Amino acid sequence: MTDPRFNDPFTRRQLLRRAAVGGAALSLPSLLAACGSGGGISAQSNAGGASTEVKQQLADKLTISNWPLYIDIDEKTKKRPTVDDFTKATGVSVKYIEDVNDNEEWFGKFQAQLSQGQAIGRDLTVLTDWMAARMVRLGYVQKKDKSAIPNEKNLVSTLQHPTWDENRDYSLPWQSGMTGIAYNSKETGPVTSVKQLFTDPKLKGKVTCLTEMPDTMGLIMQSNGDDPTKVGPAAFDKAIGTLKDAVDSGQIRRFTGNDYGDDLSSGNVAAAMAWSGDVVQLQLDNPALRFVLPDDGGMIWTDNMLIPTGGDVFTASTWMNFVYDPKVAAQIEDYVNYICPVDGARDVLLKDDPGVAKNTLIFPTDEMLSNVKAFDTEAADNPDYKEKFQTVTGA
């Protein structure tokens, strides 16, 4: 995806093999009583620092922007069961638009309207953490109606307090993923560190790195003993130097988005900086592929639900509550295969699809989560850092 996390999101999610939604049909969750009422209970919310009235009455329609193939799909009917279940439970029709192909592209499309405080025809959108941070910083999103989201209590503890939205007033995670090292066990032994990736002569010319700065630079910074959650010029320049040395030596074959998958599976590439969600899907066709978090630490990213200016806060918040029911979250997860942010979903899948439930790339262990960090969101949006990175990568 071409945002600082992904180079080509549409290609990434479209081309990776998707398993059909498995397991028994899921029963509808019970919603908070207010969801079905027409009472005009009001709550306070902020948009750009201004206080607004939120009428706790469901709208007739909810419009959602999301990344392609980022929700469960019935492979036979091509319908989206979770979307249909929400409509059955609430009476709200859903216009579900798969138009977030790139964070910057999406932002550029709507920035002029948002900067004028105008509605953009979206009640909810899903953006990556660094872009979500920009949206919050610029005042382009509204506070959630937390009274409509009792299921927020199911948010996993590791994602409850991001630096850019400490109390999750504006956001709620949709899915997460880890960035680490993938290798083809038919082509090489275990590759467990960035240092090995960049210096092992047996891997020369058979390594790929990611075009997304937070992923690549975050892994390198940890390998250098620096903290990617708080990026300073000295540490960044040191990591750029490490990367440039690996490029100049011929160790790195190329920089990629998700398109490392074919080369890794075929053996043209022995090891790659990779995303956990990709490897889960690629392993379906090539069980020789392995994913590891580097010894010095991996990276974690999060895509977040946000309510842009003009969106219906109560209806969007009701959707957030719906998808944070563990049964619904499990239904989504069984298809999407990224990291689920909802406690309780794994317990549901242990009954419905044990293979997914026991996959630590989808439900990481506490030990794994203690070994990943999120990249500094301000640094990810720093134009000087971006330019230096692009100079080395040619991106």
Summarize the structure in words.
The strands form two sheets. Strands 3, 4, 5, 6, 7, 8, 9, 10, 11, 12 and 13 form an eleven-stranded mixed beta sheet that branches. A two-stranded antiparallel ribbon has the order 1-2. The chain has helices spanning 9-15, 81-90, 103-115, 129-138, 194-199, 213-223, 233-248, 260-266, 276-282, 313-323, 326-336, 345-352, 354-357, 366-369, 377-380, 383-393, and strands at residues 42-47, 50-55, 61-65, 93-97, 124-128, 141-142, 171-184, 207-210, 252-256, 271-275, 289-292, 298-308, 372-373. β1 (42-47) and β2 (50-55) form a beta hairpin. α7 packs parallel to α16 and α11 (326-336) crosses α12. The chain is an alpha/beta fold and 395 residues long. It is globular. It folds into two domains: 9-175 and 302-353, 3-Layer(aba) Sandwich (D-Maltodextrin-Binding Protein, domain 2); 177-300 and 372-393, D-Maltodextrin-Binding Protein, domain 2 (3-Layer(aba) Sandwich). Helices cover 35% and strands 19% of the residues. The protein is built from 16 helices and 13 strands. The longest helix is centred in the middle third of the chain and has 16 residues, at 233-248.
Calculate the mean pLDDT score and round it.
Answer: 87
Distance between the termini: 12 Å
Using the 3D structure, state the CATH architecture of the largest domain: 3-Layer(aba) Sandwich
CATH superfamily of the largest domain: Periplasmic binding protein-like II
Q: How can the largest sheet be summarized?
A: 11 strands, mixed
Strand content: 15-25%
Q: Could you name the ranges where pLDDT drops below 50 across 5 or more consecutive residues?
A: 1-51
Radius of gyration: 21 Å
What is the level 1 CATH name of the largest domain?
A: Alpha Beta
Find the count of extended strands (DSSP E, 2+ residues).
Answer: 13
- Which secondary-structure class do the elements indicate? alpha/beta
Number of helices: 16
Order of helices and strands: HEEEHEHEHEEHEHHEHEHEEHHHHHEHH
What's the number of structural domains? Answer: 2
Helix content: 25-40%
CATH topology of the largest domain: the name is: D-Maltodextrin-Binding Protein, domain 2
